[in-house]
Specification:
Elements (H helix, E strand, L loop, with lengths): L47 H12 L1 E2 L19 E3 L6 E5 L11 E2 L16 E3 L22 E3 L7 E2 L12 E3 L10 E2 L14 E3 L11 H5 L7 E4 L21 E4 L15 E3 L6 E2 L13 E3 L4 E4 L13 E3 L4 E5 L4 H4 L4 H5 L4 E3 L13
Parallel strand pairs: 3-5, 5-6, 6-8, 7-9, 8-10, 10-11, 11-12, 12-13, 13-15, 14-16, 15-17, 16-18, 18-19
Antiparallel strand pairs: 1-4, 2-3
Length: about 375
């Protein structure tokens, strides 16, 4: 097994295109929330105490972009960002998304989120991404929304330690806490034990969260058997993928990792998308990658891999996208029917002057074949 080491590489150019889950792994909130209303349900009115809670929330926010200008009148179910169940009239979704211009995004008047949010106990979707919360910690009371299925906290300029109370959200299936575009404030976790309680989780994105002290990350993530998408890019991880006898991530389809890669990658039998680009990984590409027969997209570009490309990459019959560019790979390129069908063949291998053979114009000498 190749010995690979990782250097922390924080460069915003590589953050410009954060991982976007493929269509097969994206989970849409509409699947779990009833339509706000239909043409014959216009009589639905919001519940007064929930309207009061929303008004209290608004009072604690700054809104330079007038996102909340519709928050007036009696029927809060008609307000922007609010969705109500057409069966119970309870507010089941609150979306306070920030705007592209951070200076126009929602902020906090008193430096913290108003606990009036707890008046919306029936929320199934809470979306606070992209706001300008100026380094305020994620509130512990978020762990009290026991019906929550989707939680979006990404790039909202939260700061400080992640509250372990998030682990109380036992129904959560989608958790996005990435801070890829967040420069001024850092969120971190020194102990991810809380994460192991989210056993229903399908999608997890902690990209650019500081996990350098969370030595248990691989052990904890391995307790999430329903996980389909895992994004841990730029997290300063210390350990690699769990050892083969303990790998339980049998549902994992998409892995975007900024950390060590080992032969254990071959045990992720359901993996469809693997992105390990810009990792400063060295050594040789593990042969076991060729054992992940479900793999459709493989990106190992912009690393320091050397040696030959594993011949068993030609076993990846489902592969439709491959990027091995800008490494130190040498020798002939493996032949195989599937590899020959990939689009833009030459660009797959560009930046590896030691490679030779079709589809490259460089002819291999006998010692390189």
């Amino acid at each position: 097994m190749a010995v690979l080491k990782i250097l922390w590489f924080s460069i915003l150019t590589i953050c410009c295109l954060p991982f976007i889950p493929t269509q097969s792994t994206t989970i849409e909130p509409a699947h779990v929330v009833a339509s706000t209303r239909s043409s014959n349900t216009s009589s639905i009115r919001c519940i007064p105490r929930e309207r009061d809670a929303l008004l209290a929330i608004r009072a604690g926010l700054t809104d330079p972009g007038n996102y909340l200008s519709s928050w007036q009148g009696e029927d809060c179910c008609e307000w922007k960002g609010v969705r109500c169940s057409n069966r119970t009239s309870h507010a089941v979704e609150l979306a306070l998304r920030g705007l592209a211009d951070v200076n126009s995004s929602i902020g906090l008047r008193e430096g913290r989120l108003n606990s009036s949010l707890l008046g919306l106990r029936h929320l199934r979707i809470l979306d606070l991404r992209g706001n300008n919360f100026n380094g305020t910690p994620i509130p512990k009371f978020i762990g009290e929304f026991k019906n929550l299925r989707y939680l979006y906290l990404s790039n909202a300029n939260f700061g400080g330690q992640v509250p372990p109370q998030i682990g109380n959200l036992s129904k959560l299936i989608y958790l996005d806490m990435n801070s890829i575009f967040q420069d001024l404030y850092t969120i971190y976790s020194t102990d991810l034990a809380w994460l192991s309680r989210l056993t229903e989780l399908h999608y997890l994105d902690l990209s650019r969260m500081d996990l350098s002290a969370a030595v248990d990350w691989a052990h904890v993530v391995n307790k999430l058997p329903s996980l389909v998408t895992l994004n841990l890019r730029f997290c300063m991880l210390r350990n690699g993928i769990p050892s083969p006898e303990h790998v339980n991530l049998t549902s994992l389809e998409s892995l975007d990792l900024f950390g060590p890669i080992t032969e254990e990658i071959g045990k992720l039998a359901a993996l469809k998308n693997l992105n390990l680009s810009w990792n400063h990984l060295n050594g040789t590409i593990p042969d076991s990658i060729g054992d992940v027969h479900s793999l459709e997209s493989l990106d190992l570009s912009h690393n320091e891999f050397g040696g030959k490309i594993p011949a068993n990459l030609s076993n990846l019959l489902s592969l439709t996208r491959l990027n091995l560019s800008y490494n130190n790979l040498t020798g002939g390129i493996p032949s195989g029917n599937q590899l020959q069908t990939l689009v833009d063949q030459a660009s797959i291998y560009i930046g590896n002057p030691g490679l030779c053979g079709p589809p490259l114009s460089k002819i291999c000498s006998e010692e390189l074949i």
